[in-house]
Design brief:
171 residues, five-stranded antiparallel sheet, two-stranded antiparallel sheet, alpha+beta, 1 helix
């Protein structure tokens, strides 16, 4: 599928967009001049954001959020001091109840796409306390810029090691 409106977008263009959908790994769909395109930053359905276009392809455009103009009531303050740097948790900016609804919708959409039929997931069973639940985590070991040994987690989309003293999801 091709989106003709992508031809009017160009790198470094600033756009005000309404977020229509949040999918896997925080990718979301925007509304722009009666059309849509994708991005992969932290926005929530219903928010209005100012973004800067970084890349435009034939079927998709990518951008970076410059400002959240209208915030969703589902927006939560991340409870981890490493959230902005770490690449491990990508939904800690959304309240837990909304994240469960988002995951429910993602399962329904995936089943429809793969099997060609509508499916209704009754509910996602959440945790009483959605902290410290993972029993497996990759902790890379390496050297920092000063050539000192370091251990932690990878920064998002990189192999740079971020030292963490408390991971909110790891037991």
């Amino acid at each position: 599928m091709s989106f003709p409106f992508l031809r009017i977008l160009s790198k470094n263009l600033l756009c005000i967009l309404n977020v229509l959908y949040l999918g896997f790994k925080s990718h979301f769909l925007y509304f722009h001049s009666c059309n849509s395109f994708n991005d992969s930053q932290n926005a929530i359905k219903g928010e209005k954001v100012l973004i800067k276009i970084l890349k435009v392809n034939k079927n998709i455009a990518f951008g970076k959020i410059i400002e959240i103009i209208e915030k969703s009531r589902s927006r939560a303050k991340p409870d981890c001091e490493f959230y902005e740097k770490c690449g491990g948790c990508n939904l800690r900016f959304i309240d837990y109840k909304t994240s469960l609804e988002m995951k429910k919708k993602a399962v329904e959409v995936t089943l429809k796409k793969e099997l060609g039929e509508d499916f209704l997931v009754e509910r996602i069973i959440g945790m009483d306390n959605p902290l410290y639940y993972r029993n497996k985590l990759i902790y890379p070991v390496g050297v920092d810029k000063e050539n000192k040994a370091t251990m932690g987690v990878f920064a998002e989309r990189s192999h740079r090691i971020i030292e963490v003293s408390d991971c909110k999801i790891f037991i």
